[in-house]
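Weekly puzzle thread! Below is a chain. First person to post its structure in token form gets bragging rights.
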Amino acid sequence: MLIDALIQLNEHIHFLSLLWLFPIIFVFHDFEEILTIERWVTQHGARVQSSLPPFARKLYQASFQLNTLNFAKDVLAVFIVIVTVTVLAVFYSFYLPFIAALHLFFLHVFTHVFQSVYFRLYTPGVLTSIVLVLPYSLYAYYRLLTDHIVGPRDLLWGLILLLIVLPPALLLLLQGRKRYVNNTQTKL
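Winning reply:
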């Protein structure tokens, strides 16, 4: 039954369309976050911050002071990266950056779910993570592998690339958030 459903899905979704769905699914997921983050932080930020270990509290402090506009700027930066890796995959058949981004997208689902379970409350992005991101990611992996676009070794190289790129990218994101907050406080 699942195999029949996948075969039908394969017949209706061209592989290139599947690749272009990545930025589209990202947008829907991040719309949920953009629309809910500021209010959520106002209501739950102090409780969440107090439950973090001291190093994490310091590292993420500026994230709890972002307004919707500044959060949306972060989302735009990530969106540009996702569109870029999708263009590389679609037009140049260069899949490694796409795979690394897909790994992060897939793993991001579990950060949302973990946060919701750990804090025992809704966290921005958890609904679309479960309803859109998880099914898309699993189906994308399935198609990449069954269409022989990539193999297990490529998935491993994508993970290695992600592990190399993610730490400096995350630090840049957090530094940018500090600048947003400092600039906002300076203007006041």
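Puzzle host: Confirmed. Bonus trivia for everyone else. The mean pLDDT is 91.
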